[in-house]
Amino acid sequence: MPGATRQSTSNLELLTIYEVSKILGSSLDLQQTLREVLRALAYQLQMHRGRVYLVGEDNVLRLVAGNGLSNEAAAQAEFREGEGITGRILKTGMPAVVPNLAEEPLFLNRTGGREDLEEQVASLVGVPIKAAGTVIGVLTIDRISDEGPQGHFGSDVRFLTMVANLIGQTVRLHRTVAEERRFMMRETFRMQKELRPTVAPIDDVVCTSPNMLEVMAQLHRVAPFKSTVLIRGESGTGKELIARAIHNTSPRKDAPFIRVNCAALPESLLESELFGHEKGAFTGAQKDHKGRFELASGGTLFLDEIGDISPNFQAKLLRVLQEQEFERVGGSKTIKTDVRLICATNLNLEEAVGHGKFRADLYFRINVVTIHLPPLRERRQDIGPLARHFVAKFGKDNGMNLAIDDEALEVLNRCTWPGNVRELENCIERAATQCRDGVIRPDALSCSMNLCNSSILFQYRTLGASVGGLAPSMARAAVNPAHPAAAPAGTPSAAKAFAPQPGGVGSAAAPSAMPAPLPDPVAAGAAWPACASSCAAGPTPGCGAAQPAAPAPLIPLPLPEPSSAMAAAGAPSNAGSAAEVPLDEPESGSLRDRLLWAMERTGWVQAKAARLLGMTTRQVSYALRKYNIEIKRF
């Protein structure tokens, strides 16, 4: 009978090994697989409270799978080498048997799953889990008996050693697969990074801001193709420079790059310039003339200010763009051309289409790939590098060593720059001619001398008027960088602050007729206008003021005077325009009252107030400091 029992036990162990091998190869989830193995041991051979510990990268033995344990208890089961029974098995690499856990001093019971040791005898059998001769974990089980500890555990040790070997091979396979997967992911990422087109630097394009880097990436993506590109942005943002960069990085770089400013030519001359003309087509046409479309064949044609062409010419241009063919003025021969078209405008084409000033079919034809160039005030990270670039360029062109200090860069960084990069270049060149020791400092900048009135143009544009070829600004006012989440100035409250008063634009109304003072823009986080000397005043004075300027309402700027023809026709004129400052200067008032009167009527521009009072700018500046008059900045 004992022989039959041993045979039955051997068959059961063999069946259990078979089940364990199937379980270990059934899933890629290692923890779930090990829990299924422990359940099979408990069900088939009554090996209860099975635990599988694995060594982590920090050489700490942690519980990976266990029968009848909560997640909180499993998280506490950590052993270091030589710590407790489990740590001793890890250190020695040898199996261990504890006949009675209640009498074992090394037993730590960290999992808290053996509180019934006083009621029944629990024996522990533990074996190391090895892979390639290295101990990578520990497998333990409990033998529970009501009759006292068993005397022989040899068969359990041998059986658990076989199971531990199977577990070790499975763990090694999982770790190898995981490591190879991580390696492949790293290699894939590296290859993608290497194959990813890099944003190569382009001559004369200086940019470090994220939005301009995105523009450069878009430039490199669109350059290899023939698609029409529409470059949009305010005047002075560098649209022609970007167009030339697209051409230079395209397969057409060795072909001509022809530029045409559509706003600089009348309609009749523009047609001849683009399409050419035959001899005798009109008075003065002494010979055949090739147009720009012919000259740019195989290359790139850049049409700047395309939003300013007339509706009649838009229809003629549309046929060329669709069919890639045209006839010269006065000719009947159809000429084929292979031209890549790049257009640029600073106008709102959607608004022009809505008002019938721009053909919708031409808009859709040129609006294939659109590149938006941000204004300089929205890419302030580029102001410093651009300023240094222009300083170096000026020094090279004039054979001198020139530099700009950090304080001057801080002043430049607070400006609104309605003229964008073009205005910044002119400002640097103007300051370079004023510096004395080869270093541009704040006192060499025009805004420090009250000679820069660019913010007046910016103020015009934020009111929705085009100024000297500058399209109306889409943003109604500069936004205080200290409060980027502030409401835009295009909101009804801001529009009310910018609205002209009933007394007429620029009229000499009483102070009570002026717009009501705005709330504190710094406290309210609202938009704030540029100061009169082109510096973004905000909470920090940018023009050498000793105190931050108090918030003040924007005084509506004068509109241009009507032409003589309009005046002759009896058209109403603004009798109170700023060009004709009312001569109601207080004769008997004090100098302080006369100074306040002049400053209020000139928009707090010291140079204009000085001319109105017959004083110098230095005298006005001294008087303002003497009478402690806070300069209002717009």
UniProtKB/TrEMBL annotation:
Keywords: Activator, ATP-binding, DNA-binding, Nitrogen fixation, Nucleotide-binding, Transcription, Transcription regulation, Two-component regulatory system. Pfam families: AAA_lid_14, GAF, HTH_8, Sigma54_activat. Residues 483-513, 562-579 have a biased composition (Low complexity). It comes from the Bacteria. Residues 483-514, 554-587 are annotated as: Disordered. Residues 205-433 form the Sigma-54 factor interaction domain. Interacts with sigma-54. PANTHER family: PTS-DEPENDENT DIHYDROXYACETONE KINASE OPERON REGULATORY PROTEIN-RELATED, TRANSCRIPTIONAL REGULATORY PROTEIN. Required for activation of most nif operons, which are directly involved in nitrogen fixation. This is Nif-specific regulatory protein. It comes from Azospirillum rugosum.
